[in-house]
Design brief:
Blueprint: E1 2-7, E2 10-16, E3 22-24, E4 27-29, E5 31-37, E6 41-46, E7 49-57, E8 62-67, E9 70-78, H1 79-88, E10 98-101, E11 106-110, E12 118-119, E13 124-130, E14 133-138, E15 143-148, E16 155-156, E17 161-165
Antiparallel strand pairs: 1-2, 1-9, 2-3, 3-4, 5-6, 6-7, 7-8, 8-9, 10-17, 11-13, 11-16, 12-15, 13-14, 15-17
Length: 166
Amino acid sequence: MKYVTRVADQSFEIEIDERGTVVVDGQPHAVDLQEIVPDRLYSLLLDNVSNESFAEGGQAGHFRVLLRGQLYHVQVEDERAIRLSRALTGFTPDSGEIPVRAPMPGLIVSIPAQARQPVRQGDLLVILESMKMDNELRAPRDGEVARVHVAEGDSVETGQALVTLS
């Protein structure tokens, strides 16, 4: 699995393969991470150097990490989230109706949006489960939900209209 991690103004591409090998920007590293206190304290062996790390957060991929006495604000996105974001950020007209389409096949888990509901850009419209991961589909612009084309529990295909905004 590939991740893009942002720390301050730097970006790192991290790949973790099925054997647990960690490659950061093309450089392999020996890594062993063990959780000591759930969701808080970790023992980290990085290239055979022992570290104790505190981490908190996780909301929308944002973390605060204390490592070697330095506090880092970290944002992590996996390759699926990046592809999904790119698929949803094409040209969006300022007016008229636009459909919000399924970027991949999956199952509709939740539909927070309702017909005639005003929405702001970034508001959550639909949650689509695909490959055991929930994908949040958000409004590409301000507007109003004109129609909801699906119901919870529906299976959808790539490109199928889920919600239409006006």
